[in-house]
Amino acid sequence: MTDDREETTSLAGRVGDLVEGVVGVGVDVVGGAVGAARTAAHRWDERPGARVRRLRRLARQPVPYLYDLHPDARRANPRELGIKTLDVDLVAGTAVGGVTQRGSDFLPLKPFRSLNWQGRWQRIRAAIDRLAVLPPIDVVRYADRYWVLDGHNRVAAALYAGQVQIDANVVELVPPDAVPSERPGDLAAVLTESRALRNAGEGRAGGTFRDDASIDPSAESS
């Protein structure tokens, strides 16, 4: 066991050394890749038990709500960027109401974990264990972070599994006096006003794979 820990630490150290070497090149375009490599090294070095304890501490706090932290986001204009692969660590919170129902680990609080939710959660975890490809989550981008419209359970599963990245359908909320940070990935989706685009402007969930629909609303009174 000691040898395994030493080998894992050594590998994480080598990844970190590689990152520092890339930084030394001084090429701006690799900034995003450097950040991803640092995250990968950190995740590799974090043992599963420590990760679960960290997430359970987060679960005691309500998940951050975009419009509480950034009220100006309500006046922003939604622009679809298309499907992106995101660093899970950049998923900062939720963009839909009912924030008191979830902790900062993106899981429902225990009173809201219905039998329906438990079944969905087990299927999501099993799919991740099989390395199955899950549908992209729906998020909005604001203040250089991502906020979940639909897919909270998939984000939670990714966090507990130590997954570094997750696929997402991204809608950027652009302030009235600003311009989009990048060109849309799929112009056709913008022209036809996709479901994610419409719902982002309304602060509602709207994915076709609704892993968030399993929270039992009646549990709130129990």
Provide structural commentary:
The protein is of the alpha/beta class. It has two domains: 2-45; 66-221, Conserved hypothetical protein from pyrococcus furiosus pfu- 392566-001, ParB domain, CATH 3.90.1530. It has eight helices and five strands; from the N terminus they run ααααββαββαβαα. It has helices at 2-25, 31-45, 48-58, 66-69, 115-129, 152-161, 187-191, 195-202, and strands at 77-87, 91-94, 137-142, 145-150, 165-174. The protein has a five-stranded mixed sheet, with helices on both faces. It starts with a helix and ends in a 20-residue tail after the last helix.
CATH architecture call of the largest domain = Alpha-Beta Complex
Q: Give a count of the beta strands, DSSP E runs of length 2 or more.
A: 5
Give the structural class.
alpha/beta
Cα(first) to Cα(last) distance is 45 Å
Summarize the amount of helix as a percent range. 40-55%
SSE layout and pairing:
Elements (H helix, E strand, L loop, with lengths): L1 H24 L5 H15 L2 H11 L7 H4 L7 E11 L3 E4 L20 H15 L7 E6 L2 E6 L1 H10 L3 E10 L12 H5 L3 H8 L20
Parallel strand pairs: 2-4, 3-5
Antiparallel strand pairs: 1-5, 3-4
Helix pairs in contact: 1-2, 5-6
Key phrases:
8 helices; Conserved hypothetical protein from pyrococcus furiosus pfu- 392566-001, ParB domain; disordered C terminus; single chain; 222 residues; globular; 41% helix; alpha/beta
